Amino acid sequence: MAAPQSLASRIVAAFVLMAAVVAGLFALIVVNAINTVETRLVSDAMNRQLDFIIEESDEGRFPALGPGLDLYVAPVGASASLPAWLAPLREGLHEIENDDEAYHVQVRDRDGKRYVLVLDQEDFERRETMLFVAVAAGVVISILAAALLGRALARTVISPVVRLSGQVQHRDQLLPLAPPLAAEYAEDEVGKLASAFDETLGSLREALEREQLFTSDVSHELRTPLMVIASSCELLEAQGLTPQQRAQVERVGRACAEMQELVETFLGLARAPQERGTKLAGTSLAAVATEQLHRWQPEAAQRGLALDLVSESVDDGIYPAPLLRAVMTNLVRNAIHYTDEGFVRVVLRDGGFSVLDSGAGIPEAERALVFRPFARGGSTRGDGIGIGLSLVQRICDRQGWRITLAPREGCGCEFRVELRSA
To answer: Which of 413, 395, 293, 409 is nearest to 357 (CA)?
Structure first.
């Protein structure tokens, strides 16, 4: 795939191409004109010379020939008396080569005699070569001049576009107090483009502000009922409950704690980059993996799946607990959800982990779409709406982690998460 070219390089290329085409056509016209004029001038000059020679010979005189001219006279039909390279020629002007030398030859039959006038083209060819060199130099100079002119014009013409592009790419333009762009440009095409960017950036600012306010409001309003549920679970646990009742209360308490953690996660993802200074509780990769194993073991057993944990190497890193837990939870849950038989395996390694399964896998055409919001597998199951992997991708992007999807040999797929940059 060809590398993309800048606007300046395309302008220079257009100027050079135009100059090459125009200069090339002009050169062809000049060369063709030179050849045409050469044929006409040489023919006229040699015919006049033959007229003079024949007139002088009729009066019994033989005129002296100019430099580079040779004359051969022979009876018509007696070509054997002429040089072999001139014998086959008919009447008229000819341009031929003999012994690597070029000649103009004028042949005329008069009163039973054949007159063959030969002109050496060495001087003419030298002048013609100089003309061709001059034409070629003109073409090259035209192309170079077009390149220089195109470069100068490109700098002048696109400098406002380059400046506008740099301003639009700057992240500060999304800030509410960022100055408008159109005020810095004239009311031309670039100014209109800057105005359009102002409108678009304004819409983006409003959308980001609405998203942040909505997420903050929802997170804030959910905290109170979650605290009520958590305190109620604590009160219930203090009562005399049967083991079965206590297990159910503990299950509600764990779900409440998980929801509180998710609220913090979503709130952290919604914060603007400059507001992401809140420190989240840290944990180890092995701790989160062990927790997930215990959490999903009952559901995996209910589906007849083997859920196991494999540690290939020890990882001693500390990671944000809510974010790492959200990533691993969604990957393990998806693997269990889309696997009918076999196993789901979490593999730990230094700097990352993988979630493997023996399910049907994901078709190659759908792999590029699985991390998009609301994207679901071909075999839709349950009431999921397809935001789990999108959330995983957002978390990984925020933390500088890297997640990839690859098919497993045989069947199933592997989600691989690298928690450290290479």
So the answer is: 413
